[in-house]
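Title: Request for sanity check on Glucose-methanol-choline oxidoreductase N-terminal domain-containing protein prediction

Description:
We are preparing a figure and want to confirm that the structure record we downloaded matches what your pipeline produces today. Could someone re-run it with the sequence below and paste the raw structure tokens into this thread? We only need the token string, no images.
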Amino acid sequence: MDLGSTRFLKALLLAVFALLPYCCLAETAPNYSFVHESTTAPPVSYHDYIVVGGGAAGCPLAATLAETTNVLVLERGGSPYRNPGKTDKGNFLFTLLDPSPDSYAQTFITDDGVYNHRARVLGGGSVINVGFYSRAETEFVKESGLDEALVNDAYQWVENKVVFKAPLLQWQTAVRDGLLEAGVLPYNGFTNEHINGTKIGSTIFDMNDHRHSAADLYADPKNIIVYLHATVTKILFTTQTVGSRPRATGVIYEDALGVKHTAYLTNDSKSEIIVSAGAIGSSQLLMLSGIGQRSQLEPLGIKLVMDQPMVGQGMADNTLNGLFIPSPNPVELSLVSAVGISLLVNYIEAGSGLNLAPSFGWISKFLLSILGQTATGSFFDTRLNGGIILQKVARPLSTGHLELRSTDPNETPKVRFNYFQEPEDLRNCVQGMKTIINVVNSKAFSKFRYRTISTQQLLNVVAALPLNQRPRHFDTASSLEQFCIDTVMTFWHHHGVCQVGKVVDKDYRVIGVDGLRVIDASTFSFSPGTNPQATVMMLGRAMGVRIEKDRRS
């Protein structure tokens, strides 16, 4: 091998970075002696369970299964512990917008013209999100088919390990009181439950603003191996006889050097491959492995294992629209603590004092040019002197689809969400924007806004910012309907492409195939709670318990 090759040097650097947490960060990271770079993996290995994806579902799932069985986890990203401060609350935007090749978030642009991100790090989305923790609505639990007691135990298991009460300082208090003035009632105080009204929830940031992701749910189990920078290219199948159901038997994965490795299931009828690679990654892998719509797979030269046209269909994302509010007074660093919940319609969330790179200083001049002399000073130095209030359409009826671009597993597929295709989604967005405007105009929020800046000027600011690649219209800022359409962003709550009853059964087994399950947000028909991470982690734990119980029966 040419020692000067880019691939070799990259792999060497990845290996060095992978060792840092275990050598230098003993007080920060758990004892992760079972986590290794995939370049150290043997050519062939055998396991009771192979979990593809070490994200918000895969981590608790694998940790639970490893209590009694042999488990392999294959994660395409790196370790969040190589630079633990990178995921602290103050670095939220730094981490999310990091453009480096080994960043924790892979950027892509949807066919709708909206910037988006996929997690690629052990811990998944829980490493790059705003950290808010809130359980699902009762309806979601009933529809999931999971036992209610098991669900509650799984939530509690997660909460005992990585969840903290969200702080309520001045900005978040003003948002809370503004929501109440705006009529988002009743006030439910602190609760993890998803109920109508205004509440204070939990977070995965501790009192020192350190993040505790799903990767923290491992407890150094002895029966587990986690390989980082391990990209699964294909699931392997066998058929016993002509016409019999295919059975998953193993996976092929590549390490950072591009060397292929094969992991097989042990010769046990209850051994399984479990795909937990997220809404985009899980459906992509099924297609790359031959499970999908024949008309999409065969032109790419993919051998069809099962014609399943619903894989990749029903792709959904909750829309994000909102306002930036410059403040005449100092604001604290905060992510989501207070939320307003209008069930089936929208959710209101807020953050303040976010850290920005110095290169974002142009935004301050840009805003001043739009707002004129109504405000003075700089809105940005390296920190946002103000905040954002956002609304999320609760259950979008608009859905799209996912299609492979190629057979390269590292290439994000074509994704279209069809934002606001359904009129009801647009109506809910407009209602959410009206609530935000009422919060901004409330007496409770008056301390944090310039009296001389109108809400119309705030709408003008957002309309002028390059938040996406969608066209602007003459009435973008004057029509709330057009504002929602033109300034839409993602809430990163992708779901729906491997839904229960369509691609997987109520036990999350892929329909028509043996030895293969999908357990993650791709199976959801709607995104649970205000933010889904609590339920995704719960699902991993609950299904791990159930699978382990079934194995013993």
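Thanks, this matches our download. The two ends are 50 Å apart (CA to CA).
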